[in-house]
Structure formats: structure tokens, C-alpha cells
Amino acid sequence: MEHCYNVVWADDDVQSLLEDYNSLFERNGINIIPFESAKPAIDYIRANYNLIDGIIVDAKFSRDGEAVQEEGRSFPGLSMFMQELNSLRNEANMPYPCWIFTGYGDLLRDKYDSDDLSGFEDEIIRKGANFEIIKEWVSSMCEKIALTQSKEFKLRQENSKLFELCTETYLGRSMSQTLLNILDCESKNEQIIFTSFRDVLEEMLDLLVRDGIIDNLTAKTAINERISKLEKAYKDRLPQYVVPSLKLLLVSSPLSHPGTQEKEDVQNGVVPFMYETLLITLKNIVPWFKSFIDTERMIKASKDISGETVTPSSEHQVSDTTPIDSRPSESGVLTVSFWSVRLDNGQYARIDKNKAQRSWKPGTPVKVITTKDDKGKLVVKEIIGIGKK
To answer: Does domain 5-158 match CATH 3.40.50.2300?
Structure first.
């Protein structure tokens, strides 16, 4: 896609909705950032104001995780967004178009008039609507977001290939701000810019470790050693530009420290286009890197399907002496956002994000032990098998 839009979706049922619609959003260049209640979503938008392009909200969902009565005319999550939308837009100087996606459209129109809902897009999208209607909605969403005129938005869209890595499946959403530091060079000092180059390179190589492409015997900061491991592991299978490009990006390390020869040469104009050189190198290597990761994951997934299972890492091994087969476990598959499991009985169980790993793939079979949290929601108590049922 020629664009990459970040849309926050706040809905207590967002994980199951993404099972149905995430591929549609992805095909249209939309990266969904999911939340199950209003306050965390609003806090995230406020903290990442220059990285958010649109918002989707349910009508009947919680403000901050409390139980919500399905019956009645109470819309706590939506009401919180009604109160906060204008201030969010004014603080960020961003339009933040916001769509309501709900099964309570009639009840909503009965309670609120057009002035009450003036902060939202006119059309309320009905949950369960015909898929063609949903496709038209997503298409119109892209058209609306494309009208955004902020400097940061334009930088992100002009460099959308870079930002495709900024999801939890790859480098993580926080990397978006790091890339903006690089691209918005006029408003950042040299140290921040060159440090950001190194940070991106460091995270790219760390993803290779998390995905098992190279071993984990080196420290995250041991960039040169990790590049050498990649070169050794893949030998003649890497295009000739890959290793030199990664090593060139490593030049950003001495550039971010005072007193180095490289830093002095940049400051004295001896190498006047070092920033431009590193930027074009990054723009070249990132699309290759994403394609490389995707290919390696497909190869690994095909091996899993053919019967070669993934061995669980030590942090996910069974923690007591009871044999796995005799414990009350359930089977399922990881969902699109990898921190929930769709169980074989059709239910969804949440995984603590601190236990999830970005290298996990949607659709991977898992074996888990479940329980219920203090709100009565099904959650994963323990992961006892990744890559097997």
C-alpha cells in the first residue's frame, strides 16, 4: 500500500472483531491498535498524538474495565469519548475522524440528538452488516483520513514502507516515534537523529533473535556480532547489499557520541551527506527486511503444518511437576493480535501482554490452562505448549 494509517479501535469485543475484519483493514493499509475500554485508548492517543490517524468506538463498552449492563441506555465508553474528543483534537491539532461501530445504533439515536454526536462521523456502522457495506466503510475511512494535513502525517505517508514494521508483529508501535525522529530532522538535534538510526537497527536485529533466525547468545547492543551471525547463517542466500547496508547503518553509533572522528567529520562538513546516506540506506533495507522476515515465518509455519512443532521456550514450560497430559488444559490458536487465544470451543481467552512474544504468529496452535479474572472474563493462566495442540 502507498499509505499506512494507524486507527485506534475501542470495543470490549475488539479481539473477536479483528478475527473477522483485520485482514480487510490490512489490505487497505490500516493498522488497528485495539483497546477494550475507553480510558486506555484515550491515554494512548494522548501519548502518541502524532501517530494516530483515526478512531473507531463501540457504543456500549466500559470506561476503564468495569462491568457494563447490556440492557438499558447507558453508554459509558462512548460517553467518555464524547467528553474527550474535542480536547484530543485541539491538543494534537489533528482531525482524528471517529466512527461509531455498534449493534446499538437505534438505541443510540433514541438517546442522543445530532448535536450530541456531532464529534463523530455521520454514519453509524452496524455490527453484523453485510460485508460489502463494511468494505465500503473501510474504503471511505481511508478517503477521510487521507485529507489529514499535518506535517507528521505527511512524513509517515511519504515513507509508509518504513512504518509497516511499526506493529507488534514486527518492531513494535513505539518504533513509529523513533522513525519520526529520523524523518523530522529539522526539529531534532543530530544526537537524537543518529541515535534513532542505531535504535532501529538494534530492534531489527533483535527481531531476528526473537524469531529464531539468529541465536540469542549475544547482547542486544552487540550489533556487529549479530550482523556477522546473520551473514554466517545465510551465507550466499543474502543479497550482496544486505550486510554492507546493515554495517553502514551501524556508523550511526559513533555519530551519536561526541569526540569521535566520524562525529567531527560530519560537523566539519567533511562528509556533508551522511544523514542522507543513512536515510536512503534505511529506506532500501527496511522493505527487504520485512519481506525476509515474512518469508522466514512462512517457511517455519509450513514446517509446523507438516509436523515439525515448535519447542516452547523455557519461560513457557510447565512450572510444576504435574505431567502436561494430566493437567486440565485447553487447545486453541493464537489470534491476529497474538495476545489472545481462540479456543476450540469458540471462546476467547486473553493472554497477559507481558507473557506474549511478538514473534508469535496468528493461527499458531497453543495449549493453555485458563481461568477467570475478577471481572469474570476468561484469561490464560498458563501457556504450556506453543506450536502444538
So the answer is: yes
The one-character DSSP state at 316 is: G
Measured CA to CA, the distance from residue 124 to residue 205 in angstroms comes to: 43
**Unique residue bearing C-alpha cell 483534537:** 89
Q: What is the pLDDT of residues 126-167, one digit of tens each?
A: 999 999 999 999 999 999 999 999 999 999 999 999 999 999
- Give ∠ CA 65-67-72 in degrees, rounded to 5: 130
Name the CATH code of domain 314-386 (choices 3.40.50.970, 2.60.40.790, 1.10.620.20, 2.40.50.140). Answer: 2.40.50.140
Q: If you search the block for the grid coordinates 544486505, which residue do you land on?
A: 242
DSSP string, 175-188: HHHHHHHHH-GGGS
Q: Is 241 helix (H, G, I), strand (E, B) or coil?
A: coil
- What value does the CA radius of gyration of the chain take, rounded to a whole number of Å? 23
Residue 11 in contact with residue 36, Cβ under 8 Å? yes
Helix H or strand E encompassing 263: helix 261-267
Q: Which of 121, 129, 119, 152 has the alpha carbon at shortest distance from 51?
A: 152
pLDDT at 306: 53
CA distances from 265 to 181, 272, 274 (A): 22, 8, 10
Answer for the pair 58, 169: CB distance below 8 angstroms, yes or no: no
